[in-house]
Design goal:
The protein is α/β, with parallel strands linked by helices. The chain has eight helices and five strands. The structure holds adenosine monophosphate.
Length: 189
């Protein structure tokens, strides 16, 4: 199983990606988690990306592509979350999966309105005290999602590969819709 999950921050994609990974025993590859781990470890990568994450900006494409290339080369199955976020990243992903012969089985889009995403993110920032979740950073991330990541969504939709799931239902209902999409796209393994 090789799944890509797309959606704005606040769509619940991280939670749902973890659940897919746990249910099917496949690694959850989250670029946000990889970058946040690097920041908390204070590694060279972490020091470089910390201010970018704090502003809610995007890490440069070349850095992200190298990071994900190494990771995907070592996994046969995965739930990919947080990448690709730009057209350049999407092109690089297509090329690298082609090269290593590991095409995606399912591409899922979790849809939520900006209002709902904003409401959830502001609530989460208050509850968890996340430093990268200031109102400005949240608004910036949503703006960048529309500007840079929507074309990625459109690309998978145009290729007929996109399964669109309404993310404004309960977590369990959303997961049920995802599971149905996974089954429909082939043997779940
Ligand atoms: P996430 O947890 O996926 O929302 O990612 C948190 C932050 O990490 C984002 O706001 C970006 O600053 C950075 N990030 C994660 N994935 C990418 C990516 N594919 N390209 C650029 N920046 C990324």
């Amino acid at each position: 199983m090789r799944v890509l999950i797309l959606g704005p921050q606040g769509s619940g994609k991280g939670t749902q990606a973890k659940r897919i990974a746990a249910t099917h025993g496949v690694p959850h590859v989250s670029t946000g988690d990889i970058l946040r781990d690097a920041v908390s470890q204070g590694s060279e990568l972490g020091l470089r990306v910390a201010p970018i994450l704090e502003r809610g900006d995007l890490v440069p494409d070349d850095l992200m592509v190298e990071l994900i290339r190494e990771r995907l080369a070592s996994e046969d199955r995965f739930v990919l979350d947080g990448f690709p976020r730009t057209s350049a990243q999407a092109e690089a992903l297509d090329a690298m999966l082609d090269e290593i012969g590991k095409p995606l089985d399912t591409v899922i889009l979790l849809e939520v309105s900006d209002e709902e995403a904003m409401r959830r993110l502001v609530g989460r920032a208050a509850a968890e005290g996340r430093r990268d979740d200031t109102d400005e950073a949240i608004a910036n991330r949503l703006r960048l999602y529309h500007e840079l990541t929507r074309p990625v969504v459109d690309r998978y939709r145009a290729a007929g590969e996109l399964v669109e799931v309404d993310g404004e239902h309960t977590m369990d209902d959303v997961y049920a819709a995802i599971e149905a999409a996974l089954v429909a796209s082939g043997p779940v393994q």
